[in-house]
Amino acid sequence: MFDFMDMDFNSGGETGEPSGSGPYIPDAGECMRCGMCVGSCPTFRLFQVDEETPRRRIRTIGKLLVENQPVSDAELQHLNNCLQCRACEPACPSRMAYGELFDRARAALASQAPIDWLAKLAFRVIEQKRWRNRLMPLMDLYLKTGLRTPLRKSGLLKKLRLAEAEALLTPPALTALKPLYPATANRRGNVALFTGCVAEPFDRETLLAAIKLLNAIGFDVSVPPQQGCCGAIHQHNGQSAAGLIANNLRVFNALPVDAVIHTASGCGAMLSEYRADDDAAVQLFGSRLADINEFLLQHWPEDLLLKPVDGTAAVHEPCSQRNVLKNQQAVYALLAKIPGLAVAPLADNRICCGAGGSYMLTHPDNAEALRTLKTQAVAAAAASTVVSGNFGCMCFLNADPALNGQKIVHPIRLLAGALP
Ligand code: SF4
Ligand code: SF4
Q1: Atom 4 (ligand 2): residue with closest C-alpha?
Q2: Residue nearest to atom 7 of ligand 2 (CA)
Q3: Any signal peptide, and if so, which residues (predicted)?
Q4: Phi, psi for residue 283 in degrees, rounded to 5
């Protein structure tokens, strides 16, 4: 069990005072071991032991990055149990940049050990649009031919460690998005849409809803086909995302647009924290980057009235939205534009749903335990619709049979559906 007597106030930080405002990346040695992050951590909630807390993970990260000390297998396992939800960051009086420290630790570990064939394959598929384009018709065929049930029963998927990924499969979109969607109302400007590598085929409805809404408020939407994955899966798993970042900077910075819009908060969190050698390119990219909810809210025409929708919407707040983008209030403000719709937060929004990027595939038992808590909250909400602003969370939650067919959708799909 977690024990406050284990706290060591004499090591780490000097004053215990939070730092002033402005960018500040403390190193792992500056953790005060105060334990204020403990209650926010989903793995502590699951396991109730101090080894599964942010402060113990930071101690391990300190060994790796600062002290250059060996780390035991047990410490490594506890470190890897982290969902990278970053709920510990806002709770920390020292403003520990946990996400950044964790990525650095993962990169240090990855440089010491080769990755296995499955991870290598997954990284290549994420990197290469050509590979994804070839894979999608095969996935579609697999879902249509009825192979799914016998293959699942055969145990082969488990043997190949593909069972968790296969459980998430839904029919992919097989056609490419058009490069340009012109405004359907008085033209006010133009934007580019960041589609996401996996969301482009598997969450096409959200992307089309974004385009419809942006067009309806007077913006042309460009969808540059050369764009690629945001790089989050690579970076959070110790791989270099530099090539993916450089590609997106080049592609989007070359476009004469007013904004670059992202729809999935997981991608948005990564895009908003891009770092690269070319600082000017990062600055330009960041200055035009916008979250779909915030952009719509900011540019919504006063005379655009939506059709009424009876019912209630429960809002799931993804960790990337709450802890990194910190803009979840935009979702409530946007949905309030739909007459008749009652909007409320889902209970216990501060706890991760278990998806955690690739965590749902690498730590299926922990992810499942957290998803069960979330689907219980969904059932208790008894809402006509549950919305989530992150594709990864939606995908993982929607694959839970306990939802009994209820589908969690992106909030902008409700909005697009209510357009006159
Ligand atoms: S709240 Fe911050 S300073 Fe305190 S133990 Fe957690 S990470 Fe360390
Ligand atoms: S990122 Fe999330 S899971 Fe990891 S230590 Fe912080 S709160 Fe816990």
Answers
A1: 82
A2: 41
A3: none
A4: -60, -45
Tell me, in angstroms, the distance from the centre of ligand 2 to residue 53's CA.
7
DSSP line for 75-104:
HHHHHHT-----THHHH-TT---HHHHHHH
How much is the CA Rg of the chain, to the nearest whole Å?
Answer: 22
Q: DSSP characters for 36-77? A: TTGGG-HHHHHH-SGGGSHHHHHHHHHIIIII-----HHHHH
Q: pLDDT, tens digit, for every residue of 302-352?
A: 999 999 999 999 999 999 999 999 999 999 999 999 999 999 999 999 999
- Residues 6 or more apart whose CB falls under 8 angstroms from that of 149 comprise none
Domains and CATH numbers, the chain: 4-110 (1.10.1060.10), 117-167 (no CATH), 180-298 (1.20.1050), 305-417 (3.40.50)
Q: What is the 3-state composition of the chain as percent helix, strand, coil, each rounded to the nearest 5?
A: 50, 10, 40
Q: What is the pTM of this model?
A: 0.91
Q: State both tokens at 305.
A: 């009235």
Taking the CA of residue 34 as reference, the ligand 1 atom at the shortest distance is: 4
